[in-house]
Amino acid sequence: KPEAQIPVINPALRTRMLDFFGEVRWKVSYDKRTEVLQTKEQAMLAEVAKSRLLVPMRCEGTMQKKPGENQLLLAAIKNTAGESYTPVFTDITEFAKLYPMKEWGATVMTIRDVINVNKGVGIAVNPAGENLVLKERAITAIRELLDGPKEQERAQEDMEQEGTEQEDTKQKA
Given CA atoms 88, 94, 95, 100 in this order, what sign does their dihedral have? Predict the structure, then answer.
């Protein structure tokens, strides 16, 4: 199917969130609990990095095709401390818990896109469900997951380039 027709569902992400939160909320102490929590958190963030998410939006204006008259607005939510977050959803069921489809549309974004348009202090995944709150530390970790392969490829290319230059120098000598 064309990508626009593929429904947004993220069962692996939901499973990882539930697994992580279950471990965090489990009131028990055991050896290596810290390592287990870190491993589960990393697995969850890796799923966030791979996910396609629904972001609530609506059009303000006349809906005419005149430049400057229409403005697409992305939703924002606030916590009790007044901090603003960009809400994102793993699927339409979670989306509909907060945003009626008659009033709100949705756009599909990767987490990289959401990070780039985020205007708050963080991102809230399924705020009426699991409520995974991503702030600066988690967003940095996700960026590293997203950029990691590119950095490794660049480093490999640099090493190959240096090797080629050294071979050229040896042949000239």
Answer: negative
Cβ-based neighbours of 143, under 8 Å, separated by 6 or more: 112, 115
Lowest mean pLDDT, pick from 65-79, 140-154, 158-172: 158-172
pTM here is: 0.78
CB 92 within 8 A of CB 74: no
For range 96-119, the mean pLDDT: 93
CA distance 11 to 35: 24
Q: Residue 29 corresponds to which amino acid?
A: S
Could you tell me the two tokens for 10? 């993220």
pLDDT in tens, 1-33: 555 567 899 999 999 999 999 999 999 999 999
3-state secondary structure of 108: strand
